[in-house]
From TrEMBL:
One of its GO terms (molecular function) is UDP-N-acetylglucosamine 2-epimerase activity. Signal peptide: none annotated. Belongs to the UDP-N-acetylglucosamine 2-epimerase family. Keywords: Isomerase. Its EC number is 5.1.3.14. It comes from Isoptericola peretonis. This is UDP-N-acetylglucosamine 2-epimerase (non-hydrolyzing). InterPro entries: UDP_GlcNAc_Epimerase_2_dom, WecB-like. Transmembrane segments: none annotated. Residues 28-386 form the UDP-N-acetylglucosamine 2-epimerase domain.
């Protein structure tokens, strides 16, 4: 029986971390014989995102151009919703009025992939729902338990969870979080985290750092290196200042250690960090690093102090201890496994914990006793296999955790089930097939192929 959905899948992303964690998935989709990614960027971190995707060989189909200085969260969200609506309408025409009825052709997107917990991801999920496009949530199920920490990310990820038809969860604990919130376990799939896929790809390249301030790293293979990053909204102000003060104190207390601090471009963060650390000889301040060079830096590090979510998963994959400079974390599996230590933003606590790692080999070794709980580098492969099963009813992908049920995913997405002797099929009313893609002002649109050998596929 034909499943009347297009093999094109939207991938919407806005920030550099999203680009980093989604490029392995985009690469897999680009190489797939039947599924094709349509990558739409929002324009928030344009140069950084474009660089990551171009370096990984990922083609961008559209840029919504919503990134501009001073944009509030509400303005960002509304701009993404309106921009994605315009993009889809221009490329595919209007959405089907109902997701029901037996049809033989449908060129409308098979799904919309969003990642994580950004406001752009939440907005894209809302837009996709309004456009009758099933949402696939990558890195689903992370929770801290309070909607104000981190803000606004915690509520964003909960919002996407209510919309998504399919949840690609990094760990079993993430699935448990979703089930507690009422998500059918049959719509969840344990995949590992695509960030580990990206890290392994990037670290293997071993490209030069390419910056004068980091030239010493090319020749120095022995000095202990501590990498420090800080940018979370809830740490703005005193929290960022405390992390920087702790770094200054550690540099004074450990003269043999070098510190590398990639400074976030947000002026509120950058000014605070530079005020505290500009004059410390052992501290190297650098602009945000390209992903592959940052992966090399992580692999070179003795210790990482960070409030970043992704680094909490990436550094343990390289056996590097991580001190999490936040009061809460959604990466609780890492804390339980001992690969992360939650230290908050109190300078005394950070200095004491970092001092133990830097001076006590046993304390440092304790961080790597357990395997990294966040993945084995094959998450993107599993997600693409799941998408192929959902669209084409190919064999069910294997997993070490709970599996998912295709029928539950499609029914949640609104597909109408029709029963027949040969088994049920899932269909929807078609979108227009004679629509001509049109360019919008400031939005680049690349037409889809006019020849599609996979318009009709057998379940």
């Amino acid at each position: 029986m034909p499943l009347p959905v297009s093999p094109e899948i939207l991938v919407v992303l806005g920030t550099r971390p999203e680009a980093i964690k989604l490029f392995p998935l985009i690469q897999r989709l680009q190489d797939h014989p039947r599924l094709r990614p349509v990558v739409v960027t929002t324009g928030q971190h344009k140069e950084l995102v474009d660089y990551v995707l171009e370096t990984a060989g990922c083609e961008i189909a559209g840029d919504l151009g919503v990134g501009r200085p001073g944009l509030t969260l509400n303005q960002l969200s509304s701009s993404v919703i309106a921009g994605l609506d315009d993009f889809v309408s221009a490329r595919y025409g209007p959405p089907p009025e109902r997701i029901s009825g037996r049809v033989r052709e449908d060129h409308y997107p098979a799904g919309c992939i969003v990642h994580g917990d950004t406001s752009s991801a939440a907005a894209a999920a809302v837009a996709a729902f309004h456009l009758r496009i099933p949402v696939i949530h990558v890195e689903a199920g992370l929770r801290t338990g309070t909607t104000l920490s981190p803000f606004p990310e915690e509520l964003n990820r909960q919002l996407v969870a209510r919309i998504a038809s399919f949840h690609a969860a990094p760990t079993r604990a993430n699935v448990q979080n979703l089930v507690r919130e009422g998500v059918d376990i049959g719509r969840t799939f344990v995949t590992g985290n695509t960030g580990i896929d990206a890290l392994r790809w990037a670290a293997a390249r071993e490209v030069p750092y390419g910056r004068p301030e980091l030239a010493w790293l090319e020749d120095d293979a022995t000095s202990p290196v501590v990498t420090v990053t800080a940018h979370r909204r809830e740490n703005w102000g005193e929290g960022i200042a405390n992390i920087a003060r702790a770094t200054r104190r550690l540099a004074d207390a450990h003269p043999d250690v070098r510190f590398v601090v990639p400074v976030h471009p947000n002026p509120r963060v950058a000014q605070t960090v530079r005020d505290e650390l500009d004059d410390v000889p052992a501290v190297t301040l650098t602009a945000p690093m390209e992903y592959h060079t940052f992966a090399r830096l992580l692999a070179r590090s003795t210790l990482v102090i960070t409030d970043s979510g992704g680094i909490q998963e990436e550094a343990p994959a390289l056996g590097v201890p991580v001190l999490v400079a936040r009061t809460t974390t959604e990466r609780t599996e890492g804390v339980e496994a001992g690969v992360l230590e939650l230290v908050g933003t109190d300078a005394d606590t950070i200095v004491a914990s970092a001092g133990r790692v830097l001076t006590d080999p046993a304390a440092r070794a304790a961080f790597s006793r357990q395997p990294n709980p966040y993945g084995d580098g094959h998450a993107a492969e599993r997600i693409v296999a799941a998408a192929e099963h959902l669209v084409f009813n190919s064999p069910v992908p294997q997993t070490s955790g709970p599996g998912f049920v295709r029928a539950q995913v499609l029914e949640w997405a609104g597909f109408h089930r029709t029963d027949a002797v040969e088994g049920p099929s899932y269909v929807r009313e078609p979108a227009a097939v004679d629509h001509v893609p049109a360019d919008l002002e400031d939005v680049v649109i690349k037409p889809k192929s006019t020849v599609d050998p996979y318009d009709e596929v057998s379940e």
